[in-house]
Amino acid sequence: MTDRTFPVLWQGSREHKAALARLECPRVVPWEFIAERREACLRFHDQTPERLAERGGLAPEEMLAVLEGAPLTTAERVAMWHLPPEQSVPRLKDALLAWESTH
């Protein structure tokens, strides 16, 4: 494992960013956490992890879509990408803890 990190994009309204802070959303995750899902990045965002990082990273709900293999239907994908922080941040933190326990 390297010390390289992948950014978690904090975007949206002031209230949205305050919710991310209140929920202690990470600002970065280990590079491998996302890089291991290169194909999902390409499939769901048409970009490599490197390009996504250059553009500011992925929001928590976008990261979940990559990590969980986002549903195939457009409606399900849109629903995933619009999860509120109260749903997306705990799921992201749980996924990160699970990943860290095996790496």
Describe the structure in brief:
By secondary structure, this protein is mostly helical. Helices cover 61% and strands 6% of the residues.
What is the tally of beta strands? Answer: 2
Helix content percent band: 55-70%
Number of helices: 7
Kindly give the count of domains: 1
Q: Rg from C-alpha positions?
A: 13 Å
Describe this structure in words.
This protein is mostly helical and 103 residues long. It has one domain. Helices cover 61% and strands 6% of the residues. The chain is built from 7 helices and 2 strands, in the order E-H-E-H-H-H-H-H-H. It has helices at residues 14-22, 31-35, 38-45, 49-54, 60-68, 74-81, 85-102, and strands at 5-7, 28-30. A two-stranded antiparallel ribbon has the order 1-2. Helix 5 crosses helix 7 (85-102). The radius of gyration is 13 Å and the shape is globular. The N and C termini lie close together (8 Å).
Keywords summarizing the entry:
mainly alpha; two-stranded antiparallel ribbon
Topology:
Blueprint: E1 5-7, H1 14-22, E2 28-30, H2 31-35, H3 38-45, H4 49-54, H5 60-68, H6 74-81, H7 85-102
